[in-house]
Design goal:
Shape: globular
Distance between the termini: 52 Å
Strand content: over 45%
Helix content: 10-25%
Strand order of the largest sheet: 6-33-32-31
Number of strands: 33
Amino acid sequence: MDLCVCVCAFWCVSCMNGLLFCNAWFVHQYTNVAVLNTAYWYDQEDTVWYHEGLQELVDARYWLAEYSIPRAMARLAKEREESQRPGAEKAARTQELHKKLRKLANSCSQVGDDRPISFCQFSPNSKLLATASWSGLCKLWSVPDCELVRVLRGHNEKAGAIVFHPQATLSLSPSSLAMASCAADGSVCLWNLESDTPIAELEGHYSRVSRLNYHPSGRFIGTACFDCSWRLWDLETHTEVLHQEGHSKPVYNVCFHPDGSLVGSCGMDACGRVWDLRTGKCVLLLDGHLKNVLAMDFSPNGFHVATGSDDHTVNVWDLRRKRCIYTIPAHDNLVSHLKFQENAGNFLITSSYDNTAKVWAHPGWTPLKTLAGHEGKVMCIDLSPDEQYYATASYDRTFKLWEKEV
């Protein structure tokens, strides 16, 4: 089937005095026309400034459109199917989930490094945990016994994050590109599951790279940089296809929509932005926090996005209404990381510099469980894909595993 897409190979930089909304049409053969809201910035003279993009960016935009539209259709079909389930069945299932979450307890605690541990993430098969440390080392640990599997040496400064390819430990071979990590010196290293040294590096950052994330396809990776921009890299060619400005201060985090159509960025300018990868437009400004926005994640339902801030709160935004629908007074210190339940988005987990992590129910955003036990700031939290384990990484140099108490 042919796909006809309105694709813009340009990105826009101007005096950001206003926001004008228009419609970009995506037409797919044998389907109805769908309207997607997009946006562009204009200055006082209504003059729009564009910088011409690379041909690689045009190709990437077409590829992303072809990838994301079928995923969006599948997500909506799943939502329709779920809406047909009896209310009593859904209520019983939610009650059972909440009961399980309230029984979470610490099952393992491990000293992970001699410097604070800045990040942790489970592998897609839930059998490995990757950690990043201010020593510059990244490490792989077995789950659930927390035994050291491998030390990854490639950074000379504080490592900010390490993330797994969506198919690592599943369909990819151990020699394939499986992980990516970033550090304060701007280095981004690519790893496989066999070597303790990088198999490649993404060169081009000249400021701190605080966070990075894989696109759901695994083909692209986004990096958040302290030069007030975020970047999109094509891992098939190891080239930068997009260098996106738009924030007035350093960008701290970047995340992708589950369909692969949108990307979210947030940073030290106290706001977040949602961008359409298929057109290059900023479709929504998330302006509501009072201080730095350090954490961001899209819900699997496709229309909610959460942001966590230095103002101690978590804001939940509705992409359809284009506004904040709930503010959670989440912690007594800055919110360092957050994540929705991966498959359904029925709860949200957060970590904070108040030495705790918390689990929040959806809908209602009521607190279900507080995970306390660290002696220092909790810098990251993650949930295993099989939903059996939770991991927290801390300034106290330890990481902990949490599971349902028997």
